Amino acid sequence: MKNIKFIFLLIFTxxxxxxxxxSNSSACDSSLAGTWVMTASGVIDGDTGDxxxxxxxxxxxxxxxxxxxxxxxxxVSDIQPCNDSSGENYSDFCSGTWxxxxxxxxxxxxxxxxxxxxxxxxxxxxxxxxxxxxxLFIPTDTTNDDQDNPDSCQYxxxxxx
Length: 161
Fold this sequence. Notes:
Elements: H1 2-16, E1 34-43, E2 63-67, E3 72-77, H2 90-94, E4 95-100, E5 104-109, H3 116-123, E6 125-127, E7 133-140, E8 152-160
Antiparallel strand pairs: 1-2, 1-8, 2-3, 3-4, 4-5, 5-6, 6-7, 7-8
């Protein structure tokens, strides 16, 4: 049931979209370009889906975003598919374009370019005050009860090197 709702939402969103996201349609701040290394990630213990509990402060995952001044990025990780630059899905999921505002960074993988507006609310990282840390909170539903009611929160944090 949850998947059916998502499909209808996706179809509705796409039917209302009249232009695609591309590297030319958004700007990136070149001062944010560089290597961003994952410094914390995981499910937030004790969170009820509102992402208000204290996030993790470490990670077991090696991952980094390499943001280029031309608004393109590459992600390198020890997790599939970003652990093999010659792999079949690497280009679709581990490289793409990025845009930014004064307080956010939005990396959009090549495989999601046609659905940019759908993924923007999910994949947009928030910057800290001095633009050295970007973080992302994603409410998640882990109950498998066919209801779309987040009961947990996933956290990712990257620090600029």
